[in-house]
Fold this protein.
Amino acid sequence: MTSVAATTVPSSPMAPRPCRVRRLTRETHDTFTLEIDPGDQARGFAPGQFNMLYVFGVGEVPISVSGDPAERRQLVHTTREVGVVTRAMAGLRRGASIGVRGPYGRPWPLESALGRDIVVVAGGIGLAPLRSALYEIVARRRDFGNVVLLYGARSPEDILFRRDLDRWQASAGVVVSITVDHAIGAWPGHVGVVPTLIERAPFDAANAVALICGPELMMRFTADALRQRGVATERIFVSLERNMKCAIGFCGHCQFGPSFVCKDGPVFAYDRVERLMELREI
Amino acid sequence: MESLEGILSGHAFFHDLPPRYLELVVGCASNVRFDGGDFLFRTGTEANHFFLIRHGRAALEIAAPGRPPLILETLGEGEVIGWSWLIPPYRWMFDARALEQTRAVALDGKCLRGKCEADHDLGYELFTRIAHVMERRLMAARLQLLDVYGTRP
Amino acid sequence: MTTAPRAGDRAILSVPALGSLLQALRDDGHQLVGPTVRDGAIVYAEIAGLEDLPQGWTETQEAGTYRLHRRDDDALFGYALGPQSWKQFFFAPRVRLWQARRGGNETFTIVEESGSPPRLALIGARSCDLHAIAIQDRVFLREGAEDPDYAARRAGTFVVAVNCGQAGGTCFCVSMKTGPRVSEGFDLALTELLDVPHRFLVELGSARGAALLGRVVSAPASDTDRVAADEIVERTARSMGRTLDTGGIKELLYGSYEHRRWDEVATRCLACANCTLVCPTCFCATVEDVTDLTGDHAERWRRWDSCFTLDHSYLHGGSVRSSTRARYRQWLTHKLATWIDQFGTSGCVGCGRCVTWCPVAIDITQEVAAIRAPEGPKDEPHGES
């Protein structure tokens, strides 16, 4: 008589790894940075990827990594406080556990930019996932041509990572232009939306690769301005967001047309997603 | 020293302007310079000029009682400030303040309006270019209005 | 049998022999799941043997209607499909993913699930549902990315399939090329022969099926039996209640995001999610993070979800698909078009359940036909409305 062997359920890809919070830094009134000790199971990441971060008993959210990919002993995430989980996360103290799953997603395609000019365009919190890319670009500066960072924030008080911005401008060969949507008279810098910086930015449109991250509307206007300047849409990359529950292509929530933002994105070439981005409620 | 014609044809706004129109326009042009803090024009005054910025930066501002002036937009090298000279009642609605030393070409509005009346082809050429500038400003203003970085209610 | 039976061979099983076959599966440690009458419908549940099958029962189905009633014979499988499919057994409606325990100083540890789900034997699976299982296998058993719970429940499943003796009324497997004849994913396939004696033509689908059949009494299948069985299936194929033209359907739907029909169906659709619950391929799920009252113990559960819920696409203070129009469009476009780009096949097997169980009788085949039809002139608004 044949009998059938039982199988136990193996280690679940939905189970987070508890890691320790090293430090929480307030960046602006609604944005903070979390530095996490990844422990023995440090997985590393590529710029543009994200982790699912779990707060005990509250929930789990996808947050882009904003730290240096070369620094494997540290996991850094920057996020806005927008909901229950991120608000609970903002209250975590040094030494507290936070669940980490990941890294997930397709990263910024820096390899496709070798030898080319890179235009990095960040809107608001979009600078966080792009900061990882800039750390890597700066570490391999000679691999690329002109590197330009165009960064738009809501107001001067919302500008993130000022030290990094200054350092890139001063000593890393990156041309940094910052603009704000709203300012009062004391602000000496640019005022105006970020696409207005594109026309005069110093890069060769014919050979450039563009990396854009920010609110979807900002990305659309920016991609359009880049295209008008002559950047090929297959070399313009955007980072999309959708509701995620599993981050591994099973739960179905993050679908955007035929793509799963968690595993086919979040980084997409603009020519592939342009039409869907223009349709309502996709 | 570069000629005024050369400066004009080198500025993005007059890019590719046919020489016969350039000759007409240059008659209304003059070089100007503002120190940081100087006003290019003030709200409520007669709009008699528009400015092609060659170097430096200016802010379009508006002041309301009880609050510091709000900057709507800053414009720099290669850009244009002012189109109220084209459209009656020819009055400035905002302040324009130089943020740093700014060199520009000022174009006399009355002079240009006169020449456009006399030569409608010149008028068409100028209006087409101004329309293009307005379109881009409107798009930018709309995106600014959407406050994309703000928190939704 | 004198020679060792092989896949494709056929034999005849009496009703008692079928009962013995089910018992043999139980003796091997399989949990039998099959059709049984409950709550006014034929549902899939754990069964003990022949006695639990819906003998003498059948159903009438139409858009928005399902009624059970008695047959005038003793057929064991004389019906088509109930509201559920087999997906509940592999893609569990509610399952705990892990537990967490709070430690000192705001730390916590994760406790993973252990334990093994029972080996299942599906009794009475229809061709459309077997295609649906294969489709869900492509979702949950991706190379390099398997859902471990699905894989554990799915492993070693024994399938006793049934060729449909009648069409369901709302189903359209012929259009979707998923039936009615069982062609893949089975160990044994039965065709019920209702003349005297009441018996089954059984087709072997695998070595496991052959081995099991070898343990019960069977007789060789005569040519008359084979012809009779084939004719039953062909008659079913000829009597489909609906058709769905799948020609170029992906391009059709990709080009129809702004079609007027979405506005029209949105006036009827209640976004009740019935269709996604009864659909054998829908796989959306959500997670729930819960704690107990002390706050020291947390759990994460996975449960079925539906793209028809407002929350499904929630992002930063609002939902991407907030209108019913957008949600219906998402469901249908996914099922028939984007699914093809994602998994290489259609997501629809033509089982008709979404048609039967929609409370307002929305018919997926009608919606597709309407989108295919050339758009006529817009109706002028009536004076009195």
